[in-house]
């Protein structure tokens, strides 16, 4: 644990992110007030104007401040705001764009009363690490609750064009000699947006599945999502793992190509989540369910593919993603990916989903998925292995504190969601990856034993 805290202290993260991303991101990283986003230029109805709810469901407060990062994972929050779905349930949500995940973490620490945020969009397992005080200032424990999953898919691993035709693709067997050659001179440099979480774990899994040790054979960097394309243009990195629209922009700008979609690495995988400070939720249980109801309706709206052209236009707006064209989002939203290396994907099952996918509910926060993220943290030495000893007893104890699937179910029932769409088991069961590895949430130690490349000895 001491090694974990020393290696990834808050100070080191800020220094690393600052060196990689430039001074433009320091405002958010140092915990200054986040930038508020009012929407696509249209006046939004207030909660008081729209709400028509029963007295027993009336929120304890009409206001909340949620943070987001400008990638497609944030779409349910933005659509719920723009379509008046939060207001419909009596809650006025202020959305605050975060400069980086470090900024989001800092702003959560101070809370909205101090100019920060009450919660928002998170990579996993950030809520668990914050709850444990592992990535906070002074290792302060700030209990958080995971309330729902926001999305599946929508991520990819992008590669600089100089590596075209060299075997750097989904399967890396043909590129081992390249990585070995680069290691002896200028190592293959790959970036993610925050250490120990989704995008770090996706790129590590991809490399390790191809026989490349992410800690020994490559150089890994932390770079905020919005800076990834600029860094690739300057040639300072060879690859990055992040969410749409940034990988597609790389292809669109002819800077690089896509080696893999995360949908190819793990079909229907868990992605980012809505999570909030536990003290806010405990104080405002009805307001919390109002937020969830707005998000759930937005997720259903987004899963109607006929709405996705409009969704792309809203997200691309200056106040949100600030993209030069909504077309950068429109094709991926339909499962159409020009991978930039001659490969084209036209498969709706590979698109981002928000409410339901081929395996069932996307929105419901399965505890078994939390366990996979924690198990991968153990795999790479970010957490001690006692978290997954005895079939993950310690990890499951933490998950039971953080994951509030019970609140999701309450909100779903109040919303009138069909019983068939409300999971009855907190585990989605055994998960399978593109390399044939299988994760059984009842046997996390066996999963780690089956993996050839890992930092933990087990």
UniProtKB/TrEMBL annotation:
Keywords from the named record: Cell inner membrane, Cell membrane, Ion transport, Membrane, Signal, Transport
Main localization (coarse): membrane
Gene3D superfamilies: Periplasmic binding protein-like II
PROSITE patterns linked to this entry: TAT
Highest taxon above the source species: Bacteria
One annotated GO biological process: monoatomic ion transport
InterPro entries: NrtA/CpmA_ABC-bd_dom, TAT_signal
GO cellular component, one term: plasma membrane
Pfam family for this entry, one: NMT1_2
Intracellular or extracellular location(s): Cell inner membrane
Entry's family note: Belongs to the CmpA/NrtA family.
Name of the protein in its database record: Bicarbonate transport system substrate-binding protein
The species this protein was found in: Tolypothrix tenuis PCC 7101
């Amino acid at each position: 644990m001491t090694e974990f805290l020393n290696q990834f202290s808050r100070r080191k993260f800020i220094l690393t992110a600052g060196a990689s991303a430039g001074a433009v991101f320091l405002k958010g990283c140092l915990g200054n007030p986040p930038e508020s986003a009012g929407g696509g230029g249209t006046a939004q109805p207030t909660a008081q104007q729209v709400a028509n709810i029963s007295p027993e469901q009336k929120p304890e407060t009409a206001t909340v401040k949620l943070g987001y990062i400008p990638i497609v994972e944030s779409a349910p929050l933005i659509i719920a705001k723009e379509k008046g779905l939060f207001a419909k349930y009596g809650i006025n949500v202020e959305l605050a764009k975060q400069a980086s995940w470090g900024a989001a973490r800092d702003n959560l620490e101070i809370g909205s009363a101090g100019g920060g945020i009450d919660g928002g969009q998170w990579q996993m397992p950030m809520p668990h690490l914050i709850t444990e005080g592992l990535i906070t200032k002074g290792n302060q424990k700030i209990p958080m609750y995971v309330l729902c999953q926001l999305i599946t898919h929508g991520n990819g691993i992008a590669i600089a064009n100089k590596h075209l035709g060299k075997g750097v693709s989904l399967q890396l067997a043909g590129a081992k000699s390249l990585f070995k050659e680069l290691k002896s001179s200028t190592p293959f440099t790959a970036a993610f947006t925050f250490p120990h979480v989704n995008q770090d774990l996706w790129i590590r899994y991809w490399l390790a599945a191809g026989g490349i040790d992410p800690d020994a054979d490559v150089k890994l960097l932390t770079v905020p999502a919005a800076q990834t394309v600029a860094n690739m243009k300057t040639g300072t990195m060879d690859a990055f793992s992040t969410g749409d629209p940034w990988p597609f922009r790389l292809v669109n700008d002819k800077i690089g190509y896509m080696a893999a979609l995360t949908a190819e690495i793990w079909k229907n995988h868990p992605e980012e989540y809505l999570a909030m400070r536990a003290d806010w939720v405990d104080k405002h249980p009805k307001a919390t369910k109002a937020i969830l109801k707005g998000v759930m309706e937005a997720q259903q709206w987004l899963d109607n593919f006929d709405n996705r052209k409009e969704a792309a236009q809203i997200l691309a707006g200056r106040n949100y993603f600030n993209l030069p064209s909504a077309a950068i989002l429109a094709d991926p939203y339909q499962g159409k990916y020009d991978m930039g290396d001659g490969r084209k994907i036209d498969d709706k099952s590979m698109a981002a989903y928000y409410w339901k996918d081929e395996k069932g509910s996307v929105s419901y926060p399965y505890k078994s998925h939390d366990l996979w993220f924690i198990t991968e943290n153990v795999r790479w030495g970010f957490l001690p292995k006692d978290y997954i000893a005895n079939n993950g007893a310690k990890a499951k104890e933490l998950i039971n504190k953080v994951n509030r699937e019970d609140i999701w179910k309450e909100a779903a029932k109040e919303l009138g969601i069909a019983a068939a769409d409300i999971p009855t088991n907190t585990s989605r069961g055994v998960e399978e990856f593109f390399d044939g590895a299988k994760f059984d949430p009842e046997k996390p130690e066996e999963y780690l034993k089956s993996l050839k490349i890992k930092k933990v000895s087990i």
